[in-house]
Amino acid sequence: MNKKQKKVLVRIIAAAIMMIVLLLLPLEEKSILRFVLFLIPYFTIGYDILRKAVKGIMNKQVFDENFLMAVATVGAMALGEYTEGVAVMLFYQIGELFQSYAVGKSRRNIAALMDIRPDFANVMIDGTVTKVDPDEVEVGSEIIVQPGEKIPIDGVVVDGTSTLDTAALTGESVPRSVKPSNEVISGCINMTGVLKIKTTKEFGESTASKILDLVENASSKKSKPENFISKFARIYTPVVCYAAVGLAFLPPVISLIIGADPRWGQWVYRALTFLVISCPCALVISIPLTFFAGIGGASKEGVLVKGSNYLDMLSKAKIAVMDKTGTLTKGVFKVTKIEPVGITKEELLEKTAMAEVYSNHPISKSLKEAYGKPINTSRVSDVEEISGQGIKAIIGDATVHVGNEKLMESVKVTAAAVVEPGTVIHVAIDSEYAGYILISDELKPTSKDAIKAMKHAGVRSTVMLTGDSEKVANIVAGDLGLDKVYSQLLPADKVTKVEELLAAKNDKEQLVFVGDGINDAPVLSRADIGIAMGALGSDAAIEAADVVLMDDDPMKIAKAINIAKKCMRIVYENIYFAIGIKVACLILGALGLANMWLAIFADVGVMVLAVLNAIRALRVRGV
Amino acid sequence: MKKTYKIDVDCANCANKMEQAAKNTAGVADATVNFMALKMNVEFEEGADVKAVMTEVLANCKKVEDDCEIFI
């Protein structure tokens, strides 16, 4: 609790004690003495409200909650309902105190979740280490990060090995190990060894700064419920106030006309009850608080949402369009099968790796990686690249052809027919078929479960877009249980496809596009919601996407949808609950069934419950 | 041009009022108040004198909500 809150708490306790004492004293009803004595706790608890109300009237801000509370309680005192006048003020203050405490607490909770802001950087200048503000570190400086410290700025490791805790960024608890020449990003915590890092970015451009900026500014993009509530609050309060005026005057005047007892006191009291209920606080506080907690909770799980409007949209996601490479598959090529004919597996792999030794193609790299040993280039000669077909090389005293079916045809070798998805490398030694090696992009281990989880989260249709061949695409789609697949697409075709899907869906459904942020920025921005995954270090993706998944686990897609759904469920619960209770109390108040006690309990109680409900949005681990 | 300011205000409805007041200030193209982060983002009109506009924004905010502060 801060100073301001403590002061209010003291006033609340003092006023409450005074009131109880006064109630126990044998004072005569409606006596001047009783009135004067009750004014003491009244002013103790309400002087600031009364002052604000007067200031509000002078600034032509009539319908604010201070004014309403002032009128209601002054009215109650005037009617001789001293206890109620003090009690309303008292409970109103308790409600306000609770609200400011709860908001402050969740503000701190969320700030703690996003505790990735580095406070300093240790810069190496001429062999000495100086502690400086990360803002002052120039690109290309060398910084030292001790175990236990946060990496302040993105960079490349120059010296030292260590493991990094990336949990604050990705929600992933498995530490990542780094060694010289590895890129590291700011916000990670260095766990085991001292690292010397050469910075590649300025502090402001570094991952940690960008993420903080993004999350802190997220609620600037307001969602429909938030806009609805701020409009509602602007209309609701004046309407209830006018209704109160009507309630105070119309029934007595009508009674007078028809010759009945006007009973002014009763109707004015009912009107004052109206004023107590007219405060829109519960709604106005709980809706933005829910979104703030939802966005904060999501970022803890490594899902960054750029605005509360995207949470709203994400909760209605019905069509999920996904890129294949890098999203559903790992995007790295690996030798997945070695099928020799007449020689051993090792021999086949060795010959192939030797033939490919000078090539930098990703496929050659994966072959060399699979071979894993240094290659003796002295045995390789006359390497000739045959464009679009493969490579011919002399290894030792044998002529080796390594390439596709066409190459095999050209040397009159019958290649085996291969049906598995991936790239097939056939090998012929001295014009004799020696088998093939299959290289394919592996599916991510969680892809299949991710698709199931998305279906479970309400996604109607899962679609995969890929530049790959139809054969490969269909096998992948079948394995994963996708609904639709479009293959052999150029990057521009992906935009066209997404536009077709957007046109075909109905207005209430939202289309999500998930990509890895590499060449799909146009599609990310074209879709209703663009989700970029594996965004650690990719600026383009962070810019273009609406939702950013910090690591590349496709399970996070369904998780993001579920977090959004939970958040929106709480938002609507709060809207219906708060408006429902208020309307019910207004009706009961007008009929004389609710007194001022009930009204203030309804007002403060609804707010407390709505705030507690809103804070639930912070807990997203299990969803 | 866009700028972000730290603010201090007690209730969410007051924050909404500040937002309205800031929006209606001459020289401000758009303004949003983020109550949870206690921040005000102001987008200024072309060629506006930021300092003068912000003084005006603060004055207007004080009018609607006495108990608020913008750290200019």
Flag low-confidence runs of chain A.
none
- The CATH architecture of the domain at 303-327 and 444-561 in chain A would be 3-Layer(aba) Sandwich
Q: Count the domains of chain B.
A: 1
Distance between the termini of chain B: 15 Å
Structural class from helices and strands of chain B? alpha+beta
Number of strands of chain B: 4
Q: Strand count, sense and closure of the main sheet of chain A? A: 7 strands, mixed
Share of helix among residues of chain A? 40-55%
* Level-1 CATH class name of chain B: Alpha Beta
Describe this structure in words.
With 623 residues, chain A is an alpha+beta fold. Among the domains of chain A are: 121-152 and 154-200, Calcium-transporting ATPase, cytoplasmic transduction domain A (Distorted Sandwich), CATH 2.70.150; 303-327 and 444-561, 3-Layer(aba) Sandwich (Rossmann fold); 331-443, Calcium-transporting ATPase, cytoplasmic domain N. Chain A is 51% helix and 19% strand. Chain A is built from 21 helices and 22 strands. In chain A, the strands form four sheets. Chain A has a seven-stranded mixed beta sheet, with helices on both faces. Chain B is built from two helices and four strands. The mean pLDDT of chain B is 86. The longest helix of chain B has 15 residues, at 50-64. Chain B has helices at 12-23, 50-64; strands at 2-8, 28-34, 39-44, 69-71. By secondary structure, chain B is α+β, with helices and mostly antiparallel strands. Chain B has a four-stranded antiparallel beta sheet. Chain B has one domain (2-71): Alpha-Beta Plaits, CATH 3.30.70.100. Chain A binds chain B through residues 52, 55-56, 59, 61, 64-65, 96, 99-100, 103, 106-107, 110, 216-217, 219-220, 222, 230, 233, 280-281, 284-285, 288-289, 292, and chain B through 4, 10-13, 16-17, 32, 34-39, 41, 63-67.
